[in-house]
Amino acid sequence: MKITKVDLAHIAVKPEQYPKTFLPEIALAGRSNVGKSSFINKMINRKSLARTSGQPGKTQTLNFYEINEKVHFVDVPGYGFAKVAKSVRDQWGKMIEQFLTEREQLKAVVLLIDSRHKPSADDKLMYDWLIHFEMPVIIVATKCDKIAKSKWQKHVNVIKEELGKREEDELILFSSETGYGRETAWRVIQRYI
Ligand code: GTP
Ligand code: MG
């Protein structure tokens, strides 16, 4: 996918602030620090349009990135980060749930899982919850540059099994460091937009 134009189009914490356009949207979900913002940057070939951090809890709002006037990627706060006050986590939870369940032009959710580890209980809850709402899910296993290539298939199998992956959901190995998986991810996302 050739990227010709990107903008941080909107920042929202409530529905009134969502973009008024009807562009299809793809949301990024996953635990804090898994690499959601880095995924966006790699997909759009920008070093740091989406703010990233070694500290979990960086993304705190719904951030809509408009790409080629064709699609919005929506960066979402991560889950499973205990250091954020419970009241704030509850607020984020409500904001995310409302967006994921009510947004009409949301076409699919990219669920990011750290390829190095077994999916966490929160990862499984999120996947089951998305299935419950009949949301198409694209599973992206991040940070594959951190594991030896000879072990990739094993890690992929563990993620598939632990999540109970549906046949129709794709699982893509990805690295924001090397760009591995970028073309595949675009090809899959394009099916939904
Ligand atoms: P929150 O906004 O806190 O929910 O985190 P996030 O999921 O947006 O993670 P972010 O993109 O900020 O990345 C977290 C850390 O992981 C940063 O230090 C990134 O540089 C690093 N990282 C992300 N993706 C990769 C990857 O594919 N490979 C490697 N080696 N590091 C990565
Ligand atoms: Mg982030």
Sum up the overall morphology in one term: globular
Look at the structure and give the CATH class.
Alpha Beta
For this structure, the CATH topology is: Rossmann fold
State the helical fraction: 25-40%
Order of helices and strands: EEHEEHEHEHEH
The CATH architecture: 3-Layer(aba) Sandwich
Unreliable segments of 5+ consecutive residues: none
CATH superfamily: P-loop containing nucleotide triphosphate hydrolases
* Total domain units: 1
Provide the residue-averaged pLDDT. 93
Explained architecture:
The chain has 5 helices and 7 strands, in the order ββαββαβαβαβα. The mean pLDDT is 93. It is globular and about 45 Å long. The two termini are 13 Å apart. The relative contact order is 0.18. It is α/β, with parallel strands linked by helices and 193 residues long. Strand 6 (137-142), helix 4 (152-163) and strand 7 form a beta-alpha-beta unit. It has one domain (6-192): 3-Layer(aba) Sandwich (Rossmann fold), CATH 3.40.50.300. The protein has helices at residues 36-43, 86-102, 121-132, 152-163, 182-192, and strands at 6-12, 25-30, 62-67, 71-75, 106-114, 137-142, 170-173. A 7-stranded mixed sheet has the order 1-3-4-2-5-6-7, sandwiched between helices. Guanosine-5'-triphosphate (GTP) binds at residues 30, 32-38, 52-54, 56-59, 77-78, 142-143, 145-146, 175-177.
